[in-house]
Amino acid sequence: MQSQPLNASDFEVIENTLLKYGDDHSVLNPSELDGYFTALVSSPTRVDIADWFPAIWGGQNPAWQTPQEAKQFIELSVRHINTLARQLAEDSVAFAPRFEQTEHLGQDVTLAEEWCFGYTRAVAICNWPALPAPQAILLQAIADCAEQDNFELPEDLDVVAHQQAVAAIAPAARALHDFWLSQR
């Protein structure tokens, strides 16, 4: 069970749990959590659950209503982390960030801001050391996307340029994972 990828109902449980126990300082949705976990499994060093789990909640674990609720969220999280680690290490082509989708002026638009914010959150938790210039540029592309405030897309959004920037995120995450993997 720990090795099975999450399905739609599993992600719904995650989303409901994040909404139930989250606040302005916590991870707020499955997209952000996916980015967070991607950076965790890409990190140059292993980070203990005692460090990364409370960071999901802004630094403190929630006051769970039941132990089963906590257990279920932890198990789903570990399954997703394992899936991401396996994909990135064994079949990075299968890796696809969990970006959000929206419609803007009649066009489908992929939003990566929340995913990128989760990724940069984990980079900070993992305390990544300075990167060589090529990898630093990749991380900066992710960080720049995380800093965008696109809760409401501007009417004059250049959709093509936006989608090109978003399309660069997954290859950047793969390359950063491969870089750190080669350094371990």
Describe the structure using short key phrases.
Four Helix Bundle (Hemerythrin (Met), subunit A); two-stranded antiparallel ribbon; mainly alpha; YgfB-like; 184 residues; YgfB-like_sf; 8 helices; single chain; YecA family protein
Strands in their spatial order, largest beta sheet:
1-2
H/E series: HHHHEEHHHH
Number of strands: 2
CATH homologous group name: YgfB uncharacterised protein family PF03695
The CATH class turns out to be: Mainly Alpha
Please tell me the overall pLDDT: 92
Structural class: mainly alpha
Number of helices: 8
Low-confidence runs of at least 5 consecutive residues:
none
**Helix residue percentage:** 55-70%
For the largest beta-sheet, the strand count, sense and barrel status come to: 2 strands, antiparallel
- The number of domains is 1
Instruction: State Rg.
Output: 16 Å
Q: What is the third-level CATH name, the topology? A: Four Helix Bundle (Hemerythrin (Met), subunit A)
Query: Beta-strand percentage?
Result: 5-15%
CATH architecture: Up-down Bundle
Shape, per Cα inertia axes = globular
Terminal CA distance reads 28 Å
Summarize the structure in words.
The protein is mostly helical and 184 residues long. The protein has one domain (8-183): YgfB uncharacterised protein family PF03695 (Four Helix Bundle (Hemerythrin (Met), subunit A)), CATH 1.20.120. The chain is built from eight helices and two strands; from the N terminus they run ααααββαααα. The protein has helices at 8-21, 30-42, 49-56, 67-90, 113-126, 133-146, 159-167, 169-183; strands at residues 100-104, 107-111. The protein has a two-stranded antiparallel ribbon. The radius of gyration is 16 Å and the shape is globular. It starts with 7 loop residues before the first helix and ends with a helix.
